[in-house]
From TrEMBL:
InterPro entries: Prot_kinase_dom, Protein_kinase_ATP_BS, Ser/Thr_kinase_AS. Residues 13-259 form the Protein kinase domain. This is Protein kinase domain-containing protein. The lineage of its organism: Eukaryota, Sar, Alveolata, Ciliophora, Intramacronucleata. GO terms for molecular function: ATP binding; protein serine/threonine kinase activity. It comes from Paramecium primaurelia. Keywords: ATP-binding, Kinase, Nucleotide-binding, Serine/threonine-protein kinase, Transferase.
Amino acid sequence: MNSILIANDGTQYQIKNQLGSGSFGTVYQVTDLSMNKHYACKIISKALLQKYNAEKMIRQEIYIQSTINHRNIVKVVNSFEDNYYIYIISEFCSRGTLKQPKIPYQEKEIFNITHSLMSALDCLHSNSIVHRDLKLENIFINEEGTYKLGDFGWATYIDKIEPAICGTTEYMPPEVVLKENHDFKVDSWSLGVLLYILVHTNYPFRAQSQSELIQLITTKEINVNKGIDEDLQILILALLTKDPQQRPTIQQLFMSKWIKKQMKLYNIFNKYENQQLKNKTLSKNLAIKIIDVNGSVKKCLADSQKSSLTQSTNTQISSSNNPCSPFQSKTNIDHIFSFKEDDNIISVPQPKFG
């Protein structure tokens, strides 16, 4: 395909090969002709957006990914539209996405993935954003091997959340599948499911039907591999706590034993360590039950619940000293999407949908 897209700022993108497809359109690799730099371009059908009343969701996805800057979050660098399609230009992650492992990941790589996602989610939550669709397929890997959270189709601001089923069922917490009120802790649960997969190579809840899966999510107790680090067992079980009030926040995870131990091992600065109590409403201790090989039950107190961390929905991030800060993308939010045509350039591709 030799089609060329022209963005509202005049940037020309040549369409290369197809990378994948989704519910509303197709993703292509494109090249910025002025910089000879590769990007991913999601081409979304307006007709499908209108059919499923999803245009507002897509525009919010663009806004969030255009205004948040973090090394572990896929950047949207440009966006524009014509009469038929919306075009989203984002950084190109040449190594694809995480796949369901055939053998368990090594502990070092499990930490690398977990810490990357925790950092991304901490950034989002500090800006009052909930992702709501954390899963293997939405974890992208760039050329340098950096893990990046992408696909913000279900992301929203905390004050706009309404009880609804959203995301991917296998990763949904009980409060979502039951259409109850939910908050930042949906991302904690989904991170727990992803961690479970990395350790066990399969999902914590497996069923033959959607109704059976929902029943398992809301009622089934989780068993974890007793051969892994006990502190990692505690972390997974804490994240998969069915009661969201007892489930740790992402900030609290930075104070869990396993995370603190790994960060110290790899000499990573932990900005939350020794942070003083600011809000005591979340100071209740959480006892995690772990069944050992003999069937006896012992209680382990997760460090994440000993900590004095809280989740603020109104935290303001300083762009001068924090990697999670707004950046200047090519997207004009106030005049979002304009499309230029040139008689000498094929500016509208003909992607196949459905």
